[in-house]
Amino acid sequence: MVLVLTGGHSGRGGDEDVQGYARTAVIATVPSESAARQELIKVSAYAAERWDFVQASGGNTSVKSADGTMYVKASGCTLADVAAGRGVAVVEYSSLRLGAAAAGSDALTEWDRKSTSASGHGEPRPTMELSLHGLLGCVVLHTHPLVANAFLCVEESRARIEEVVKDQSGHLYVPYAMPGLELGLALWRVLADGARAGDDVPKVIFLENHGVVVHGDSADDVIGAHERIIGALVDALGGEADRLRFRSEQADTAVPVDVVSAIRHAVPQRPALICIPADFPVAPGVLFPDAAVFCGPSAIVLDEDARRSAAGVQRLAAEYLAAWGQPARVWVCRDVALCSGANPGEARAVAEVWLAQQVVARLAGRVGRPRPLPGERVAQLLRSESEVYRREVAVRRGDHA
Ligand SMILES: [Zn+2]
Fold it and tell me: Residue 346 Cα, ligand 1 centroid: separation in angstroms?
């Protein structure tokens, strides 16, 4: 590892006073492009194989190399793509390097805008969560673990999670912010307010109603810290939350055929259907950003009447479209949920995220009172341009599974 930056706050222009962790930001890097790509593959592969860590195209990773280049997951791609050496965006970060966390928020904003805007050369856009990566160490892993979100999606989540991790080495807590630059700036503020000058930035960062970020000098370092946090949270939930798996079945076998065909008729633009268990109460609203982005603002619960007639299904579909301006993606029919998509890959992505939200809601009930995102936050997610881009890339690829 090569140390490329120590401290100071030169290079900021007309911005807030830089203090806290930001004053002594130190960024280690790996020495070459090939070493950076190897580290990126390693840390991505670790998370990619765990549905209980990342769902659909959620989560992201990055590695910084000594020449001022950052290798980061591309928007709309999966961590499995990155683990296979694909879906990587290359971002110049040397303009940020003289500042990194020590840069002012203006510098971060400018760098994020420049780096995430479409290049026009058909090159992959970096993840919309790029600004988080720019602020942190050499290797960065961001996940949406079910067990972490069980704590982060309840009332007083900060106190609840701190009860569990207080014996671990340091962590930071970032209040809810919209994924993207708003979240990067929220982290920047926490860093600027943070602790005594000279402390290292804690390796583990909790994001309210969202997930976890872990950073460090190497993939092994990051994987180790992520494992320790997950282990502590699983223990706190009583152990049975360990390694929760995704399960699905054929829609046609789990739901009466006439209901399936009524849904296909009512929402013809989403013909692919995947069926997952819904044998616990539907989550009380949207718990984390990807739930809104992938599954829409809510589900249609088919009551007895609707289940008996295609006209009933049609009526609920029309009411949903009128209320939300988009067709329904998830239909709950007794104890299963039908997750729909334009193609099987998209249906699978919706199913992964929907089931994740249901499991988080159930686990959160053991921690405290689940706290959905406020309505205006959900509306903001549904409007977001970068989310639309991410979903479109994912749909075009159609091969999440
Ligand atoms: Zn995220």
Answer: 18
Q: Which tokens go with 198? A: 């000279």
Asked whether residue 230 falls in the same domain as residue 272, the answer is no
What's the CA gap between 399 and 290, in Å, rounded? 18
Is residue 244 situated within a structural domain? no
Distance 19 CA to ligand 1 centre (A): 26
Question: For residue 306, what is the domain's CATH number?
Answer: 3.40.225.10
Residue 127 alpha carbon to ligand 1 centre in Å: 10
Shared domain for 312 and 166, answered yes or no, is: no
242 part of a folded domain: no
Q: Whole-angstrom Cα distance, residue 229 to residue 163? A: 12
Kindly state whether residue 147 falls inside one of the protein's structural domains.
Answer: yes
Domain identity same for 361 and 317: yes
Does 38 map to a domain?
A: yes
41 CA → ligand 1 middle, Å = 19
First to last CA, the chain: 35
Residue 38 C-alpha to ligand 1 middle, in angstroms? Answer: 23
Domain boundary among 208, 236, 264: 236
DSSP letter, residue 242 = T
357 to each of 219, 256, 266, 377, how far by Cα in Å? 28, 25, 25, 17
* Number of domain units in the chain: 2
Length of the chain, in residues: 401
The alpha carbon of 26 and the centre of ligand 1 are apart by a number of angstroms equal to 24
Tell me if the pTM is above 0.85. yes
Supply the DSSP symbol for 78.
-
Per-residue pLDDT of the chain (401 residues; tens, 9 = 90+): 332 332 333 333 334 455 566 554 556 778 789 999 999 999 999 999 999 999 999 999 999 998 889 999 999 899 999 999 999 999 988 777 544 455 678 888 988 998 888 666 678 899 999 999 998 989 999 999 999 999 999 999 999 999 999 877 789 999 999 999 999 999 988 988 876 556 778 999 999 999 999 999 999 999 999 999 999 999 999 877 888 888 887 777 778 888 888 999 999 999 999 999 887 777 889 999 999 999 999 999 988 777 778 888 999 999 999 998 889 999 998 888 999 999 999 999 999 999 999 999 999 999 999 999 999 999 999 887 666 666 677 767 665 44
Question: Domain containing 305: what range?
Answer: 249-397
